């Protein structure tokens, strides 16, 4: 059985973190949902009953939503607040969210104990635009 999580680095602050790979249920999750619904059927009806399919659908929906929410929560970096999903759609909105996250973090007294994010330093050279025009 493969590991559902993977160690990687944040694309913005380069801090190490763990993300979940699967954003939807796998075959193992379907089998486990089937077993759970069969056990629930035995508890509720004390015999085989085709109404267990309702339990199966409900358990599948709960499993799908749990796995998708777990995946989505691990995508965002806990140190800098960078979200690659939002960045892919709208980089300006992603930059605003990172700035707001860092401002909130700066005001939070508990963040003084957490390690700071390793943010990239962007150095703009003056006079570069003047040289390009010549």
Explain what the structure shows.
With 134 residues, the chain is mostly helical. It has helices spanning 27-45, 52-75, 84-89, 91-107, 128-133; strands at 5-9, 16-20. Strands 1-2 form a two-stranded antiparallel sheet. The radius of gyration is 23 Å and the shape is elongated.
Describe this structure in a few short sentences.
By secondary structure, the chain is mainly alpha-helical.
Topology:
Elements: E1 5-9, E2 16-20, H1 27-45, H2 52-75, H3 84-89, H4 91-107, H5 128-133
Antiparallel strand pairs: 1-2
Radius of gyration: 23 Å
- Stretches where pLDDT falls below 50 for ≥5 residues? none
Calculate the mean pLDDT score and round it.
86
Helical residue percent band: 40-55%
- Would you list the SSEs in sequence order as H and E? EEHHHHH
Strand order of the largest sheet: 1-2
How far is the first residue's CA from the last residue's CA? 61 Å
**Number of discrete helical segments:** 5
- Give the helix/strand class: mainly alpha
The portion of residues forming beta strands comes to 5-15%
């Amino acid at each position: 059985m493969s590991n559902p999580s993977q160690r990687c680095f944040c694309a913005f602050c380069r801090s190490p973190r763990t993300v979940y790979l699967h954003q939807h249920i796998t075959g193992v999750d379907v089998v486990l949902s089937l077993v759970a619904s069969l056990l629930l059927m035995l508890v509720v009806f004390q015999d085989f009953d085709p109404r267990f399919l309702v339990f199966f659908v409900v358990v599948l929906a709960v499993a799908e939503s749990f796995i998708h929410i777990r995946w989505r929560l691990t995508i965002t970096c806990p140190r800098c607040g960078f979200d690659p999903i939002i960045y892919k759609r709208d980089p300006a909105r992603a930059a605003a969210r990172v700035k707001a996250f860092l401002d909130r973090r700066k005001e939070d007294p508990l963040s003084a104990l957490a390690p700071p994010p390793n943010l990239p330093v962007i150095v703009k050279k003056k006079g570069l635009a003047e040289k390009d025009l010549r």
